[in-house]
Amino acid sequence: MLGQGSRGEAGSEPCRAQVASWCWDLGAPGPMASVTQQQIQKFHKDGFLVLERFFSAEECDSMRRQIQRIVAEMEVPPHCRTAFSTREEEQLQQQGSSDYFLTSGDKIRFFFEKGVLDEKGNFLIPKEKSVSKIGHALHAYDPVFKQITHSPKVQELGRKLGLERPVVVQSMYIFKQPGIGGEDGITRRMVRAASGASTCVEFVGSEPAYEDKQFIPLPIRKGGLILIHGEVVHKSELNSSESSRHAFTFHVMEAKGTTWSKENWLQPTPELPFPSLYT
Question: How, if at all, do strands 131-136 and 108-112 pair?
Answer without folding.
Answer: antiparallel
